[in-house]
Amino acid sequence: MNGLIGLGGVLALLLVVGTLIGLTDRTRFSWRWLLIAALLVAVNDALLTGFYGLLPDVIGGAWNWQGKLLAVSATLVIAASSAFGWRRSGLTFVQTRGSLQAALPVAVLYCAFFVVIALAFPGEPATGEDIAFQLTMPGLEEEPFYRGILLLALCQAFTGTKRFLGVDWSWGVVLSCVLFGLAHAFGFSQGQFSFDPMTMALTALPSFIAVWLRLRTGSLLLPILLHNFGNAFSLVV
Predict the structure, then answer these.
(1) Cα-atom radius of gyration of the chain, to the nearest Å?
(2) What region does 98 belong to: left with phi over 0, alpha with psi -120 to 50, or beta?
(3) Pairing state of beta strands 192-195 and 186-189?
(4) Of the candidates 15, 24, 104, 141, which lies 20 to 30 Å from 49 by C-alpha distance?
(5) For the whole model, what pTM was predicted?
(6) Which pLDDT score, from 0 to 100, does residue 237 have?
(7) Which residue ranges in the chain fall short of pLDDT 70?
């Protein structure tokens, strides 16, 4: 129940804020695609939580392997549909010509950010499962969703763009980063909503770098690799 209420809060924020933004530029706003984006968030959340505990965990383990695998499977199915498409969703190894020259220095800065975080906030000793999970699941599930199909849906909802740092930014791009931060920092428990500003900052802000890499290269390859590096580095140092 707590998970459903938390999801309801996120969806309400998305729909209210998204509608208000859309009303400022109605000719380049699609209510239908905003609803599709909200539906994607709801489906992703349901799969990650095993339909809020109703689905038995047949894989087991200390980490949510089953939820992640279900969610990434659904993302891949959606990306394969004609409304989305592999390439449009960033699920390609092909990098935009000339993009790596600009992207690789940014990737180094991204890695440096997480190195600093890991050294500043050392974690507990990690198990083999901890390392295996963080080296695979977060990037493989979250990037194709947040920087893939959800980003595409939101960019279809808000088609007005501004060119900056070599990529086209839109309200859809911004909202995808905000939703990524809320997925980690926002929730509902013990009868009240909770929000952790530090967690929001440590997830939403780096996601702007990840989404820039995705837009600049046209591929999710670098975001996935860097995401898993950022998650796993603190466990192995």
Answers:
(1) 18
(2) left
(3) antiparallel
(4) 15
(5) 0.94
(6) 66
(7) 2, 237
- The alpha carbon dihedral of 203, 206, 212, 217 has a sign of negative
Tokens of 174: 């911004």
What local confidence, expressed as pLDDT, does residue 190 receive? 77
Q: In the numeric block, which tokens belong to residue 25?
A: 């530029």
40-59 pLDDT, tens digit per residue, is: 999 999 999 999 999 999 99
Which contacts (CB < 8 Å, 24+ apart) does range 65-73 have? 65/133, 65/137, 68/137, 68/138, 68/140, 68/141, 69/137, 69/141, 71/44, 71/47, 71/141, 71/145, 72/137, 72/140, 72/141, 72/144, 72/145
Which pLDDT belongs to residue 132?
A: 95
Whose structure tokens read 């990306």? Answer: 79
Question: What does the pLDDT read at residue 109?
Answer: 87
Are 156 and 30 a contacting pair, CB within 8 Å?
yes
Helices (H) and strands (E) in the chain, counts: 11, 4
